[in-house]
Amino acid sequence: MPFGIFVHLLAVLSLLAMPAAADHCVVVRYQHIDDDTPGVSSVTPQQFQQHLDYLLENDFSVLELEAVVTALRTGSGVPARCVALSIDGAFESAYEEAFPRTRRYGFPLTVFISSEAVDAGLDGQMTWQQMREMQAAGVSFQSLGHSHHHLVRRDTDESLDDWQQRVAFDIQLAQSRIEDELGTRPTLFAYPYGEYNEALQQLVESMGLTGFGTQAGALWPQADFTALPRFPLASFGAQPRPFAKKVNARPLPIAGAFPTDPVVPLDDWQPTLTLVFQPLAIDHPRLRCRLNGAPGMIYQWLEQPENAVVVSPRGRLRTGRNRVDCTLPLTDDGGLGWYSHLWIRRDDDGGWYREAYDPLRVSDPVADPVPAAPPVAAPAPVQVPDPTSAPMPAPPGQEFPAGSPVEPTTH
Questions:
Q1: Which of 29, 60, 349, 379 is in Cβ range 3.0-4.6 Å of 55 for a Cys bridge?
Q2: What CATH number was assigned to the domain covering residues 273-345?
Q3: Rounded to whole angstroms, how far apart are CA atoms 194 and 229?
């Protein structure tokens, strides 16, 4: 039995042996743990150490991410104060900073990697041998795809079928490379840049993977397992007070959030978000939502469906990724329910924006496309979901000042 599978089985069995006292778990997401990388995607080693100290001193149960997903999917529950640690990218700081610190504390760690960047030996990337060393000590490696391209984007003359084949091949290639090098096949997939749409979610699900975004919030059984939330930690959101709020977060008790596709039409600069709360006593006036960290949203509570609110921004979306974060106090000690909604806005002409910083990109997705893919079973055409049965998307996170980047998810 490959060592990675053995470690995962041990994690699941340990979790099952714990008293299940909660139905939710918070996943935190790091990128760089470094003093010299861009602040929008980084925490310092000192901050990372402070985070681990806080979790240890406040009796959090730090669990393996794959085991948490299994527990929530099967309804077996998780311990109170459940947290899982994840990193996006096979950066050297994961090996040099995160690995020795989490091993010292006995905390499980999950690293999502782009296999092309590792194969190409990009500057600042770990080697497969370093990852095998980490895996032998219990670190789990999952997939961020092969090329780290913007998977939601279709080329100008690309059909839906061709897009599905190209993206499926990119994901499968990463699956194969990770399995070849580390002996385990990923079951979790993190969307590059945190970007997804309904067609990509359907494709990821058809490949048997659990999808993760970078919109913030807590995991729970009612969440959408094709786009689970994680609290991005960097910049202002990695400071002690915001960190404590995030790891103590709960899911916002909603039955649905609409629309479900994050990509907005070109003629819509102020999309509305409808939240349908579960039928329980909710202190509605205390709901607070922000667009890209800025307050000033408009709330319209509906008579039908009951316990539903339409949240509208006063300002306009910016080109690129936008996020609406909603919080509601749920406990006497100030514990917050969180929900975060992703909006993706293209350029005025329908084109796609460029990333200012991406150390994981090896090739250009247009000039250097992914090789022709072998036939892959494509999912059925995307259907508009029934609002009464659609799964809940995900929850919020950082309080960024107006004008700052909406999220520390540059790659």
A1: 60
A2: 2.60.40.1220
A3: 10
Phi and psi angles of residue 242, each rounded to the nearest 5 degrees, phi first: -60, -35
Q: How far is CA 338 from CA 131, 252, 365, 398, in A?
A: 34, 5, 35, 11
Compute CA 104 distance to the chain's CA centroid, rounded to the nearest angstrom: 26
Q: Provide CATH code, domain 3-252.
A: 3.20.20.370
Please state the domain extents for the chain: 3-252, 273-345
**Tokens 């993206």 belong to which residue?**
167
C-alpha 274/C-alpha 311 separation (Å) is 6
Cα gap 24→218, rounded to integer Å: 6
The beta-carbon contacts of 121-124 under 8 Å, at least 24 apart in sequence, are 122/359, 122/360, 122/362, 123/359, 124/91, 124/92, 124/359
Q: What is the mean pLDDT of residues 345-372?
A: 67
Query: One fold for both 3-252 and 273-345?
Result: no
Contact 31, 408 (CB under 8 A): yes
pTM of the full structure? 0.84
Lowest mean pLDDT among 3-12, 200-209, 327-336: 3-12
The rounded distance, in Å, linking the Cα atoms of 191 and 214 is: 8
